[in-house]
């Protein structure tokens, strides 16, 4: 009986760790009020999007979010 309870507790722990919300690890880009015709600055400050694409800067990620109507988050600063 004790082994069964321990095994059950272990499995619950493993599944809860695996099901961790990804949004706590990623951050929302700061897009503000952005339009599709807005030009982004030309500075190279890469960010890695949750879609696996490296964007030249946060503004470029925001424009892509607008164009594709997708919810892309920033996984990390820098290249993917």
From TrEMBL:
Q: Which Pfam family is one of this chain's hits?
A: Kazal_1
The record ties this protein, via CDD domains, to: KAZAL_PSTI (cd01327)
Q: Where is the Kazal-like domain?
A: 25-80
InterPro entries per the UniProt record, alphabetical: Kazal_dom, Kazal_dom_sf, Prot_inh_Kazal-m
Q: Which residues form a coiled coil?
A: none
| Annotated signal sequence range | 1-19
* SUPFAM superfamilies in the record: Kazal-type serine protease inhibitors
Q: Gene3D superfamilies annotated for this entry?
A: 3.30.60.30
Q: Which compartments does it reside in?
A: Secreted
Kindly indicate whether the keyword tRNA processing belongs to this entry: no
> Per UniProt, what is one GO molecular function of this protein?
serine-type endopeptidase inhibitor activity
**A single GO cellular-component term on record:** extracellular region
Secreted among the record's keywords? yes
Alphabetical UniProt keywords: Disulfide bond, Protease inhibitor, Secreted, Serine protease inhibitor, Signal
Can you say what this protein is called? Kazal-like domain-containing protein
Lineage, top ranks? Eukaryota, Metazoa, Chordata, Craniata, Vertebrata
